[in-house]
Amino acid sequence: MTQDKRILITEVALRDGSHAIAHQYTVDQVSKVAKALDEANIPYIEVSHGDGLAGSSLQYGLSRTHELELIEAAVAVCRQARIAVLLLPGIGTMEELRQAANLGVKMARIATHVTEADVSAQHIALTKELGLEAVGFLMMSHMAPVEKLVEQAKLMESYGADTVYVVDSAGALLPHEVKERIRALRQHLGIPIGFHAHNNLSLAMANTLVAIEEGATRIDGSVRCLGAGAGNTQTEVLIAVLERLGLSTGVDLYKMMDLAEEIVAPILQVPQEITRDSLVMGYAGVYSSFLLHAKRAAQKFNIDSRDILIELGRRKVVGGQEDMIVDVAAEIAKSRQEPAVR
Ligand SMILES: C[C@H](O)CC(=O)C(=O)O
Ligand SMILES: [Mn+2]
C-alpha cells in the first residue's frame, strides 16, 4: 500500500452511534467516551444527534439529552481532540451551527444526499466564516454514478469545503465501486478526500483500505462498531490494521482497545453485529438509520421489516423521507389483506 500522508481518523460513535442507541446518550457517557478518545489521541470526535444538529424530533427520534449539552461536555474533557458536528441543511440551521461554534466545536461536516450538494453552499460558507474546518459529506454515495459524484464534490469544493467525503450510508458499496469513486475524486479535486463506511455487507474495513489505497486520508470509524445499522469501520480494529500496514494514525492502539472494551461496550444493549435487517439494508441500498423505524413499523403492521426495507430501496427513498417508512409498511400490509383478483 503506497501512502505518504498521515491518516486522520474521525471517531463517529458519539454521533452515528446515536442511531444505534435511539439517541439516548447521557452527559456522563459522552464525557467518559470523549475523554478516553482524547487520551488515545484520536484527532476528531463527532458529537451530535445521529441525524446531525437539531435532529432531535419525533421524525428522527428524540434525544434524551440536548446535543448542545453533549457537545459542551465533550469539549470540556478534550485536551487535543477537535470536536466536530454534523449538519444536514434543512434539519440543522445556521443558528445551530453558530451555537456549536460558540461551544468550541472546530469542524462542521455539512451532509447532503449525493445529488444535492447545492444545498450545502450557505452552510459551508458559514462554517468557514466561523473559522471552522468545513467538510462536505456526500451521503448515499452508492446512489450516484461516478461522474455525478465528482460533479457534486466539485460543487462542495467550490463552496469552500476543506475536505469532501464519500459516504457509504447504507454500507452498499462494493470494493471496486469505492476504488473508482475515490480515484475519480482524487483526479478531479484539489482537496483531501475522506471515506465513511458502514458494515452492512461486512465490507467496511475492506472498503476503507481500498479508499486509503486510492489516496483517501480522512477516515471515519466507530469504536466497537457503534454506528447506525451494522456500524461503521471499527476504529480500534482499523488502528491495528493500519499499524500492521505501516500507516501512521498517531492513535494509541492499547488505549483504544481498552476504552472499546471498558467504556463503550457497556453502552451497547446488544453487541453490534450484522443482523438480517442490517444485511438487507446493505443489500437493498437503503439508508442505515431506517432500521429502527422499519422494525417499529414492521411490528405495528405485523409484517417483515425486510419487505419494508427492500421496497424503500426500490423506491430510492432518501434520508429525510423517514415518514415514508410507515406509509410503505401500511401499503404492504394492505396489499396482503386485499383478496387476489381473479
Ligand atoms: C445522517 C446520517 O446518519 C449521516 C451518516 O452518517 C451517513 O449517511 O452514513
Ligand atoms: Mn453513517
UniProtKB/TrEMBL annotation:
Gene3D superfamilies according to UniProt: 1.10.8.60, Aldolase class I
Binding site for Mn(2+): D16, H196, H198
Residues the record marks as site: Transition state stabilizer: R15
Keyword Manganese carried by entry: yes
Keywords from the UniProt entry: Aromatic hydrocarbons catabolism, Lyase, Manganese, Metal-binding
Cross-referenced HAMAP family: HOA
Protein known as: 4-hydroxy-2-oxovalerate aldolase
Lineage: Bacteria, Bacillati, Bacillota, Bacilli, Bacillales
